[in-house]
Amino acid sequence: MTSSSDGSAKDQRPEESTAEVRAADVALDTAGGALEPSIVPVSSQSGEPGHQQGNVMRRIVMGNGFVSVLAVIVALFLGGLLIASTDAQVAKTAGYLFARPSDFLTALWSAMTDSYVALFQGSVFNTRQGFAPLLETMTVATPLICAGLGVALAFRAGLFNIGAQGQIIISATLAAYAGFTWHLPFGLHLLLVIVMGVLGGAAWGAIVGILKARTGAHEVIVTIMLNYVALFLLDFLLNTAAFRRPGDNSPISPRLDESATYPVLIPGSRLHLGFLVAIALTYGVWWLLNRSTIGFEFRAVGANPVAARTAGVKVPRATIMVMAMAGALAAFGGVAQVAGTEKVLTGGVAAQIGFDSITVALLGRSTPWGTFFAGLLFGAFRAGAVQMQIQTGTPIDIVLVVQSLIVLFIAAPPLIRSIFRLEGKKKKKNKTPKAAPEAALANATGGAK
Amino acid sequence: MSATTTAPTPGSTALPAFRPSLKVPVSLGVLALVALVFFGFLGSDKTAEMKISDAGDAVAVPALMIPGQVGGIVFGILLLAMAAYSIYLWTQGEKSPKWLPIAFAVVFVFALLVWIVAGARQPSISLAGLVAGSVTLAVPLVFGSLSGVLCERVGVVNIAIEGQLLGGAFTAALVATMTGSPYIGLIAAAAAGAVVSMVLAVFSIKYLVNQIIVGVVLNVLVSGLTGFLYGTLMVPNKEQFNTPGRLDILPIPLLSDIPIIGPILFEQSIAGYLMYIAVAVVWFGLFKTRWGLRVRAVGEHPQAADTLGINVNATRFWNVTLGGAIAGIGGAVFTLVTIDSFTKDISGGRGFIALAALIFGRWNPIGAFLASLLFGFAYNLQSILGIIGTPVPSQFMAMLPYLVTIFAVAGLVGKSRPPAASGIPYVKG
């Protein structure tokens, strides 16, 4: 214990101002005799993921995958309990629980599993269609991955991009407009559709970056507000002659030209080229963040804007660029919706994608490939939920519950660790270096109470 | 002794400002010109009729008849005069007084209204109905933004207002139906809002999860949970779970007959009266009591508050919980006052407007209340526009609260500054 605190105290020195503040606070606390000095280093345990103190972004980014898996399991379990709690059969058997507990347990088990089995059949594999549902999952996941990458990139630069929804809407609007009004040759048309959409999304994101960099307006507020502005703008446009189908009063655009849409990859499914674009984007973001100077600057700004500025990074410029890029990434999601999946523009073109993408980025811990697989998982939830509702009558909303629970558990690793108390202890015995932070953590939460 | 303890403050080196900001005079001037040109010179020459009392009212007041174009020019000149006064003050090196932008806004909104009504197919509007409708729509917003004020003043960002409203709305409908009493439903709604808030508090204070993340996720969670239970419980058994009945309107005799303000102030359900009480109590509590001083200290500088012996995290926890309870009552308004049943996502983004109102109201209960009224007005106008048939698309009216908020946080309309420690978790040591 003492040795660990010594070691961490050394680590503390390189950190500049924050470390000093911490040291001052600690002096106060120990003077009062309230706390052991051993909790001091908690602030500098940045290397160990998921701990108290420290930068939240860092925690999002560097958490371990194990907690993610546990979080998914716990969330699915709780979601199952929720389904079971409203199940008629479970309620009936609970009436004679003590007489025949086996009936109750059977009913409970089937209530919990039936929905998930249907979900799996609707999203991955079933005997009737083979792996066709998996293609649908990939289709649904495409915009989620793109928008999730946008959110994740902003997270890495220390910005909360809640505005993927608005960015998707704007890009989808512009892309669709280019898709159904202009009539251009194959290839060129699709390219222009993509460019229009991406420029729109990038501009919508850049507004946030500019406001943040120039006036200090908080990006969370601005993005939330811009989401609604975009929504109403789309609603307005769909009621103008330019966007409506000729001779039709309902707010739905004409179908995009064949030449303006992503080609279908596998005949008989809806899976389109946009999915490959999403893979390419994932790789691109990975390269940007881990191999390029600009990505390094982004991460530096996210880790510590003051230090980044001292080191010569132009923070306002980086802020604007990150938000523009985040908007552009989300825009690919919007393009995938109109040019790939839906092929028309409606008021609900963005559905819940923008909001889901936040949970996708959080589940993916803001790493590009993590976001990719998280997008696939949530895509599977979305695709399978439809089948689930048809087969078992479980409302689609259960997906929202499971998704949000997953993110809550992932965001609070100590909670998951306390649920799986035994595993945490086992790990401690095996790996001594991990024990110190665990102890410090316990100490810190005890102290904070 | 005193000389040694005075430490130099880091901000003291900044030069004193020679001139106040030009932002207010310039934006007022631009808006006044816009008003003069669009509402005046380009305005409709029809006469706008503003009915003040309805046919059945005890006190009859003649309707206001305002000719569109002339009215627009008069209002435009009035606005220009105000802007000129603001610019004059600026040349004298003085700041515009606080009442000026508010008075400007009131005149501007009225000029806008005249312009819209005069340009409509049916140039007549009931002012009393418009105002009363705005207040009705503003009630949940006021409760929501008060919740935000309480949370942010103590240093916790509350993005979960939407979830608190929705949780309150659902629980109110469910409990009121099951117990047969809307009043018990109202109490249950407060409890539900408090529970949602407690999750926010526990995750952000104990587990130090980023408050914005918890807020965003809680909104999704509550939406999913209420949507799921709505689908499994309420849709199949509407009689049993989703017929809450309404809170009675309790008019105060005589006072409720006063034109315009009578119905607003004295002809409300208990939730409406509670709103006025809540605004007053929260304002008084925050700025006039020891409790409020502590709350604000925790929100501005938790270390200092802690040093003085205030339990920072406990203060935060209970404030956030209280805020949730208030928002829960606001949610109950949806299902017990506005309409008498719950539908999926009934709060429809109103929690985010409440958030906007709180920012536009500069983290002050009275400000949040006035901003909520303004946004409620915009909301109501939006639906009325559709009925009287105007050239202004209702979507732009719907955008207004959000645009105004963006301008507010960007510092174009005054300066909005959140509590210093808002959003930052506090860890002792």
Automatic annotation (TrEMBL), chain A:
Membrane topology reported for the UniProt record: Multi-pass membrane protein
Keyword Repressor (UniProt): no
Family annotation (InterPro entries): ABC_transp_permease
Ranges for region Disordered: 1-23, 426-449
Positions of transmembrane segments: 65-84, 131-155, 162-180, 186-208, 220-238, 271-289, 318-338, 371-390, 396-420
Keyword Transmembrane helix tagged: yes
Keyword field: Cell membrane, Membrane, Transmembrane, Transmembrane helix
Protein name, as recorded: ABC-type uncharacterized transport system permease subunit
